[in-house]
């Protein structure tokens, strides 16, 4: 299953979501402009390397990506879920929420593998937080999802609670399954960053005050 879009309209312009996507794309284009040695140095300097922990990298690592598909996948998910979460939080609070989720995600991966020397990069932890908030606030929203059945491809509308709950369980089981390989030298998926970001998003959205207009939007999700 691959989500294409949600059916829940946004009442405002997702300015911060758009700016976050633009920032990630611009940083990635800068990465592409670097020679191999310079790129490795850049990733090592601004990615989060648990073995030489730098608090600043909790933020900078969120804007780095390991390849086109890494970037496109993350930005696609952010665009699907981010506009509605931004709408109910407001621009400033949403930006803070996004960064805090990313920090919580990075810390979760650091705690899971504190001796790793592999730089952790990507916005997926922060975006997992956005997905967690979406699950809490819009569990009955419909996600238009691409489904592959043998040689056939079709789209179905799946409740957000189902597709996001399924996604979260995959991250948990994959993270637990990878624990024995946490000290491997090669890179991989930061499963615990996804789990930590998602949980942070759930907790933060429950503690942050949402806009009054949200009360009118709840009926749209049923």
List keywords for this structure.
mainly alpha; disordered C terminus; single chain; 3-stranded antiparallel sheet; 222 residues; Rhomboid-like fold
Uncertain runs: 182-186, 218-222
Strand percentage: 5-15%
Give the termini separation: 22 Å
The level of helicity is 55-70%
What's the CATH topology label? Answer: Rhomboid-like fold
* Domain unit count: 1
Shape: globular
What is the subunit arrangement here? single chain
Main beta sheet strand tally, sense and closure: 3 strands, antiparallel
Q: Sketch the topology as an H/E string, one letter per element.
A: EHHHHHHEEHHH
Describe the structure in your own words.
59% of the residues lie in helices and 9% in strands. It is mainly α and 222 residues long. Strands 1-2-3 form a three-stranded antiparallel β-sheet. The two termini are 22 Å apart.
